[in-house]
Write a structure and sequence with these properties.
573 residues; alpha+beta; Beta-Lactamase; Heat Shock Protein 90; 3 domains; six-stranded antiparallel beta sheet; five-stranded mixed beta sheet; rod-shaped
Length: 573
Amino acid sequence: MHTQATDLSVPTQNQTLFIVYSIYRVGIAVILLVLFFTTGLGSQSASLFLFTSALYLTCNVVILALFLRNWQPGANALLIVITSDIVLLQLAAWASGIVQSGLGVLMVVSVAAGSIFLKRNQVLLVPSFATITLLVNMSIGLLQQRVGTNDIVASGWLGISFFVTSITVRYLTARLQASELIAERESANAKKLEQLNSLVIERMQTGIAVLNHQSEIVLCNNSGRKLLGASTNPSNKPLNKINTNVANAFTQWRKSSNLDGHNSFDNESPAIQSYASGPTIRLIFIRLEENDVDSDFLMFIDDISKIQQHAQQLKLASLGQLTASIAHEIRNPLGAASHAAQLLEESSNNEEDKKLTRIISQQAARCSTIINSVLMVSRGNTSSIKRLDIANWLPDFLDTYQIGKQCNIELELPSELNVSFDVNQLGQILTNLLDNGIRYSAAATGEESIKLRGAADSNGLPYLDIIDFGDGVNDADIEHLFEPFFTTETTGSGLGLYICRELCEANQARISYVSHFQHSTNQKNANDRHCFRINFAHPDRKTFDVAQSIQSYDNGSSPDEIVSRSTNTNKEI
């Protein structure tokens, strides 16, 4: 580690330090000149001292100007600069008294600078050169009887200090450079890790948001923005301005957490609908710092539609065998009863008896229809989900649907609307909804008409509205629309909308009755009335292998194992 640090091209890494050192040298030169004119420093050879100080100042000013213009000297150029420092300082010391003036101490700084700036193989050149020039100075002083024995001893200690300073500074410089390398490497790794974390968080299916104590969103990833229904970046905006349902849940959690003092993953909210026609979500709140009133909060937003899809497929798989066996047992006596009623009707001449037998036949047929519907749901035919452009698919489907029917179907679609769905199951859902809508439109207006409108919401998720011109659904009945066996007709089985909902959930979609377009004055203005809406999942969203899950269930795997395996297999980031 140290070898790498010391072998670096130091000049490119210490530009600021070069400038500081040059300013120091300029300052020393100026001080020498000031002392020469004020205190008589350099009196032993005034002309030599003045010339040396002026030359020292001039060279340092030039070098400082070069450094300020981003000069990048090589190691040899730096060696020349530092040795010239030593030579000029030795001349100034000779002109002032080698030991008495104390100018020799300034060479210690030059030696230390050489240990910092020069390469490892040049480090000892500077203290060696400084010691040699000092010995030459002292030798000449002895010959001229300008120095005494005490001066020789002091110069010896000064020479030793040159080597001690060089070795010490070089060691510390190597340690600092090694630490700098480690810090830079750790900083680069931390930056990469931060970028990776940001990328992972942004691509996670789970929404993550950071809230401050004022319930303002500090940070939010892409999934969080979609699940909150935020059309723009919600950062630094109050949560209640983005999503009132989530804001209410957060407020209730804060009240309850303040009461019981808990702060764990067990403190999650019940499943709520994020926004109108939005996904069903579950929220988990975490206080980042315990017992801190001004602490930030971490909010996890889970879209539980996939969990519901898993549960739905498992439910269909578990009911399949049971309902098949029950239907088989019921069909046989039901068929016998129906056949007996037909024979009784044919053999009887009593009109009252015929009327009763017709009722028996009709109700038997209705029971048979219910059995077929239950089987259709419980068998849970494997969903073959694929990407589908319903803008191109719907016209062909409607052409087939309208064969033999006298109905008017208006279509309002963009040029392209991609969804992720099983084609056969989508056709089954639309057939059921179209049949109902046309029937109710005819009853209210006398015309068999209906409208299909497709688009994408503010989050880019596709939806399809099935709009009829009937009287709509009573407010009291809306919450029961998709319950099995619920019907407002005497002849219906009450399973049509239930089947639609089950098939939608199997394809990670949602079907709902939109009734917020009320009190329209125009009977045919469908945009101002009501409709059934299918909210599709994102067309690129993955789904787990239904067939494999059902097969695993039949082979004895537990539901938890199936859900875990399905989640791990198709986990999205």
